[in-house]
Design a protein that fits this description.
With 513 residues, this protein is an alpha/beta fold. It is built from 22 helices and 10 strands.
């Protein structure tokens, strides 16, 4: 039989193929491992051409199991493979881990661990009879087989693998800049690359830009539904030009401008803290980044409720998805409310690990941005220098910023409400946040509409907005009193839960924190 593969394997696949071939010269049992979509089946098919024997997959197992008792999965596999070993010098089994998952994945399975005994029997037979037994898995194999096998992996694809695979799928690799595609999405598998080629060849012209756009819209997914997020832009924030400039330089530029990011080796800051009083636009920054960065933006907010059974699982899922889409950003809204009680140590340690970059190279390409009203509620070790690399303070709008904000809101009103003494309002709204100013305009409009509905003699327009200013001031005073009283009370074990629950819709709604 030929020692050369019949098809063109990509470099990562060819390396695994060569290692498998060498392993079979030494041992009876070998294992091929690798993530989904790395071409394990393709490699095994080529190996089958080289060594002969029989190649079995899960289709063969399902057909065999249809004749047996549903709790006899292990016996079905044993009989299928033993019969094959008796008839052939080499038996190749693709995706054998799926059989183990069907039993080991259930805590109440009455025959837990029996799969290991099955594999022990098969391995023993292969060793005694000097037959070849080859498995493929996505991860670990049963201990009995793993300890007796030579294991070889299909490593994660690199630039040259992307080029080879696309060439085999559509023969158009010379049209594409694979360095750029790889920088945008370095963790694609063969299934995803093939789907992109098929889609673009059928519906669009194949180019680097259309390839990346397809990945952005079809393959890489944020955990945020942009349809539920208020459409805003960073430029909508007034009076915080220094913050916006830092965001553009340290977050947006490395994620958006691939050419410059590659030329100057730019990376987003590893840890960013956005802090300031409520209503100053911290959550607006999150909304703007969500719309601008799309599939590169991931959100952890009040819908992730501490103390619930799936809290850590959801957090881990977000970080893994962000690493798969790296370079990317994880936006943790109201982080101080999570750590306020000093009891959330699991997430604290997890974030320390991520910010220290201990997990992998991918983790180093994920920016973690946290917002906080009270930095004192954050664990000191979490925000020390080196972990949080960029501190951005959101401040109250100065007179010029308040003028811009009020003028913008007033311009959206009907003509009859625009004749307002803006300087009077600016003087009266000292200490107001952007959210306060928005509420002032909305309340003034509502009071005017009420008088009009009641056929009351209308007053000068400015008076309605000045009445709204006084109402907002009263609300701010009540909030300050309530906050001061809350600070004196012992913290309830449910305070973090309730704060998360109450703020769960903030970033998707109209309120601003």
């Amino acid at each position: 039989m030929s020692n050369q593969p019949g098809i063109q394997l990509c470099p990562a696949q060819k390396s695994a193929f060569d290692n498998l071939s060498a392993g079979l010269q030494v041992g009876s049992i070998v294992r091929l491992w690798g993530g989904v979509g790395r071409g394990k089946t393709t490699i095994l098919k080529e190996l089958h051409k080289q060594v002969g024997g029989v190649l079995l997959n899960m289709k063969d197992f399902v057909e065999a199991s249809a004749k047996n008792h549903p709790l006899a999965l292990e016996e079905t596999l044993y009989q299928l493979l033993l019969h094959a070993l008796k008839s052939h010098a080499a038996v190749i089994v693709d995706d054998v881990h799926l059989v183990d998952l069907s039993s080991a994945g259930c805590h109440f399975y009455p025959r837990s661990g029996y799969f290991n005994a099955t594999m022990m029997g098969l391995c023993s037979y292969a060793l005694e009879t000097k037959k070849k037994l080859i498995f493929s898995t996505t991860g670990h194999l049963a201990e009995a087989a793993e300890q007796r096998s030579y294991s070889f992996g299909v490593e994660r694809f690199k630039v040259e693998d992307y080029a080879a695979l696309v060439e085999s799928f559509c023969g158009a690799s010379k049209k594409l800049d694979f360095e750029k595609i790889f920088r945008f999405a370095p963790k694609l598998n063969a299934h995803q690359l093939k789907a992109a080629c098929q889609w673009l060849v059928n519906f669009k012209e194949l180019s680097t830009d259309t390839f990346i756009e397809y990945l952005r819209s079809q393959r890489l997914a944020s955990n945020v539904d942009l349809g539920e997020v208020q459409a805003v832009d960073l430029t909508d924030l007034k009076g915080v030009d220094d913050v916006l400039r830092n965001l553009e330089i340290n977050i947006v530029l490395p994620l958006e401008n691939d050419a410059l990011a590659n030329q100057y080796k730019l990376r987003s800051k590893r840890g960013v803290l956005l802090y300031g009083p409520p209503g100053t636009g911290k959550t607006t920054v999150g909304r703007a980044l969500a719309h601008r960065l799309k599939s590169k933006f991931f959100l952890i907010d009040g819908t992730f409720i501490t103390g619930t059974s799936d809290f850590y699982q959801r957090i881990h899922h977000v970080f893994e998805a962000a690493k798969d889409n790296a370079p990317s950003i994880i936006f943790i809204d109201d982080a101080d409310s999570i750590f306020e009680d000093g009891e959330e140590r699991g997430l604290y340690r997890y974030l320390l690990t991520m910010l220290d970059g201990l997990e992998s190279e991918s983790a180093g390409r994920v920016c973690v941005m946290m917002t906080a009203m009270n930095v004192a509620h954050l664990p000191p070790a979490l925000v020390r220098s080196g972990r949080v690399e960029l501190w951005l303070g959101m401040k109250l709008p100065d007179p010029q910023a308040r003028t811009e904000i009020l003028s913008e809101h007033l311009q959206s009103l009907p003509e009859e409400l625009r004749n307002v003494d803006v300087p009077q309002l600016i003087a009266a709204t000292e200490g107001f946040t952007g959210a306060d100013l928005k509420r002032t305009v909305e309340d003034g409009k509502a009071i005017y509409a009420y008088d009009k509905a009641k056929r009351v003699k209308l007053r000068p327009t400015s008076e309605y907005f000045m009445r709204a200013v006084e109402a907002v001031k009263e609300n701010k005073e009540r909030y300050a009193e309530a906050e001061a009283q809350a600070a004196l009370r012992p913290k309830s074990p449910l305070s973090g839960f309730m704060r998360s629950f109450i703020s769960s819709q903030v970033i998707r709604g109209d309120e601003d924190e």
